[in-house]
Amino acid sequence: MTIQPVAWPALPLDLQQYGQRQWQKLTDRHDVANLLPFQAQLSHAFALSDFLFDVVMQAPQAVATWLQSGSLDTALSKPLIAEQVSQHIAGSDSEPVLMTRLRQARRQLQFHIIWRDLLGLADIDEVLEATSALADEIIIQANDWLYHDLAQRWGTPSNSAGQAQPLLIIGMGKLGGEELNVSSDVDLIFTYPEPGSTQGARRERDNQEFFIRLGQRLIHVLNQTTADGSVFRVDMRLRPFGDSGPLVMPFSALEDYYQHHGREWERYAMVKARVLGDNSDYATELRQLLTPFVYRRYIDFSAFQSLRKMKLLIEQEVRRRQLKANVKLGAGGIREVEFVAQAVQLMRGGRERALRGRNLLQTLAVIEQLNALPDTDMKALANGYRYLRKLEHALQGVRDAQTQTLPDESFEQSRIAAIMGCDHWQQLLDDLDQQRELVHQSFTMVIGEQPGDEEPEQEVLQALPLWPDVWQQELVEGTCRELGIADADRFVIDLQTFYDKSKKRQLGPRGRDALERVMPMVLAAVCQTEQPAQTLPSVLGVIEPVLTRTTYLELLLENPKALNQLVSLCQASSWIANQLAYHPMLLDELLEPAQLYQPTALEAYEDELRQYMLRVDEDDLEQQMEALRHFKQAHQLRIAAADVAGQLAITKVSDHLTRLAEVLLDYCVHAAWQQLSVRHGTPEGMTSANQCVAVLGYGKLGGLELGYNSDLDIVFFHMVNPGVTTGDKPIDTTQFLVKLVQRFSHLMTTRTHSGELYEIDLRLRPSGASGLLITHLDSLAQYQKEEAWVWEHQALVRARAVFGSEPLLEAFASLRREIVCLPRNMAELALEVVKMRHKMRDHLGSKDEQLFDLKQDPGGIADIEFIAQYLVLGFGQALPSMADWSDNLRIFETAAEQQLLTEQQATALVDAYCLYRNKGHHLALQRQKAKVSVTEFTDERQQVIAIWQHLFADTERQLQQSSAS
Q1: In this structure, what is the dihedral angle of CA atoms 731, 737, 740, 742, given to the nearest 10 degrees?
Q2: Residue 18 included in any domain
Q3: Whole-structure pTM value
Q4: How many domains does the structure of the chain reveal?
Q5: Which domain holds residue 510?
Q6: CA–CA distance from 204 to each of 151, 153, 154, 479 (Å)?
Q7: CA distances (Å), 707 to each of 442, 643, 924, in order?
Q8: Distances (CA, A) of 612 to 298, 454, 681
Q9: Contact present, 180 and 199 (Cβ < 8 Å)
Q10: Do 565 and 512 fall into the same domain?
């Protein structure tokens, strides 16, 4: 055939030379006779994309065939993509062969798409459609192959009427909207119509078991990285209950979830939901099932409030991860266009069926036709979206890598500028800024954000002399006198030290300007406090770490209410000030005062964590660990803020801190399970972590009494039969479970940039530090019955299961009740309890006679806890209700009901316990030890000591006589 010359646009010299070097590498390794007619095109492509070069290096003759046939000159249609994928996988006789051929199909068709995209042969609409169609076909055809293969061995899943049941795959996000990135993960949800069992095999299996196994294999086939690469990264976190939920569920369970548990952010996600490739009645039924959850019958103005909250979360993430160069997130990014469209869809889609589309560009056109946003230029918004998506694809097409971040290196900048048709990088930045500005203006108009630059308040004007351009000692001291600051000398010394440090820091013009503008506001707020000289060091301790983080200075500058919250909290608690100083990203939490002083509802922590973690790449372990720590710190800050404001009683503070720990523990167990199962599979018959293992909380975790700095005393057990795991690299089940605990410990205790999540203590397990990390429940029971010391039974009183399935939880509850209700000799029990208490006092009590240790001294917390444990262990057999609770308050309540204590005694113990804990919490918030003057709590101590003597007087005398002799 005759090759027609193509006039490619001239590239910068550095790119031309790079393309020529890449061509030379190709010729050094391969016979390129068939490629010579296309040298100019290939050198141009190599200059722009390492992915295109790599494919040619791997398969030069195949690429020559594609070029000679002219197939790369035409767009890929959906039927052609389906045909190409089918041809590639035809005849696959095993899963490894299928995996290889799927990767080959993806590589060929991805080459076609990126070639046309980067060389300017395709518009963005073509690229989005082709990329989505490629994902559709690979997922659908892989599922069909695997379904047939599994059905041959396990039988066909069927309903009660004998009808075969398919796996329906819901594409979410950009896949659902048929606007997938050229290099993207795929968000999926698996479901099937009806429960039942398999038919046609020797052994019947539950449909759920069949579809879970099918889903696991499909994820493996697509996700696993082999010598040929991977097909798609699969993200299943949008399914009901996220990673802690079943991998697949029937329609009925799906409907129940969205009716009773679905959250507002899941409505946003479901706008894009699309059943891949299935136009059967089942697919229609599924769509009808989901519609009422997504679209309300009335005009739903709450959509905009949800949008504002989601916007705030994204802004926090941009600051936390320093993502300013990200074209997806931040002001004027892709996400803002998506939010505008989805907000209108959720608000009016219940009445306007035309707004229920999944494709964003088509939705923008419908919004314009309906005049749903009359003051918004929808064409400008659509053009901005096309530009941003084109730029996103340029960034990803270079290496077939998922990224939305502009490069820092000049050569990579030249590449992206050339792909975008710009002569140089600055031209691209100017174009990008223009498009972002148009998008952000529309977004701001839609959500009702009102920017405002107000005149400084009088207090700020009065504080201006405290932050002069050049330090003036007399001026600063005189201003302090005018403002009536007590201990002004200390105030001036601390301020001058900070002033000198700030002048030496290299901030840059923008950062310096932000600092000079915000400091008078900071100092004005400090001067309004009751003790400015005491408050100033804490506030400056927060400002200093962010001197070079201009975005945080600007956050305080643009949000005076947040700045006032900062000063107020630093005044109230040095612990909070320390948290803010070590973790500046927590400043984002100050933006919403109403939310700051209102901790999350106890039942909502799990969902908030799930929503938060969806924004983190599932494969990025480091970012996952950072995000978990930030979530904990942010919610601890809210709890502490409500605490110091007097809005939470001590028991409620502990309830929140305990629930927060429970959901983070739950997430880490599931994450550890997920990481291990990818490599080794799972124990036979186990599909999730909570089926397999249980976690017991002891001490403060078990007693629902966690404090701000508490560690977690935990023990793992399981009820798994011996065997090996089901994966490609199977290991012994016991080894798998030990690795699970080790991986969990790594997630919890590794000290990252944001610190550790929790310190955990596993030494309460059978045989302590020398025992197995995880034991079978039978072994745990045997140890507790035959080997455990009395103090271990005391610890068991405070134990409860904090993770595990219902059967595991019930099994432990039964064992705990059996052990704590064993018959005991009361005199021997009292002797062991008192001896242990004496030992603790001797080692841990206050050595200063002028101080009272809230926990360890006589009449303190430990005495109260030992009384509770003695009552449960001593009277549990005769009065089983004594074993109902693991927390001290309800134990004393039950003891009074059973007349083991008088009402007055129980009340005295409860009141003293709450007073001590409340004081301990507030000392912790001031970063002080749990010790007070010996003159405090004298009445409470005497009452506790009197009750101790009432119970243990004979035992105390016996010990005294024994030691005297």
Answers
A1: -100
A2: no
A3: 0.73
A4: 5
A5: 452-596
A6: 11, 11, 7, 85
A7: 46, 12, 8
A8: 29, 34, 27
A9: no
A10: yes
